[in-house]
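Chapter summary example.
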Amino acid sequence: MRIFGILFMSILLLNSCEKNPIKSQPEEEGPSAKTDTVIVNLAYGSATDQKLDLHLPANRDANSKLIILIHGGGWSAGNKQELHFLAKRLKNKNFVVANINYRLSTPQNPDNYKMQLDDIGSVLSYLKTKSLIYTYGIKEIYIAGHSAGAHLSLSYSYSRNADRTIKAAAGLASPTNLYTLSYYNAALVDQLLIPYLGGEREVIKQRYLDCSPYYQVKNASIPTILFSGEFDPITPVSQSESLISVLSTSNVPNKLVRYTLAAHDWWNTPLYFDNAIDEITAWFRKY
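The structure predicted for these 287 residues follows.
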């Protein structure tokens, strides 16, 4: 059973009219023609899951802003295809979008959290080397994710972004405090967090805190916008509220967008989805 990231048919139908040529192979040499296209399954590492789709708008140039987009799935499931519709809409706003897969959590891996943050770092390095080939900028890079992908987006931004390569972040249904999250819905969350982090919350409490964006915020953290459904049964709105509070205390620009009567995958409501696209676009253009 899927735990995170169920995409509703209404959104699939909403986006089905958007036509984009898709290339399965990158052009090997020289700048790519500046057409509206998606190049799928570019390998940024040697592992099977280390692939990304590059969404390229036609009127891009050497200063075009780049977004790294990270899917959810409880750290142990999911696929970039789940956010294909979101990447398309952001591309239509003239962003270049790297919609990524990453290595998924397993109980056998000694440090799933580090592994997944390492993958984001590898994505950044790869994209910087390809900017001249595909024509986009590397001075204005942004990051966004849903659910577990939002957690990874925020955590990378706050803990590994000392040079501020990433300028701003967006988190959709974001887990921000893994320790308190495990109390909210233990029957569901513990089966995800125990194998992900390597133990129960009271046994390795400090690790739960160390891997939480809430405890990684600094005065130099990047501007952050969060989106939360007020009826989210998986990631409660209190997770976003608490992060907004510490960002404000640290004088970091922030914004929380709340959706009433909305759950974890609130984009099944076109009004909310359209609003989120507008808010993300405005936030990334501002910062």
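To summarize the output: The longest helix spans residues 112-129.
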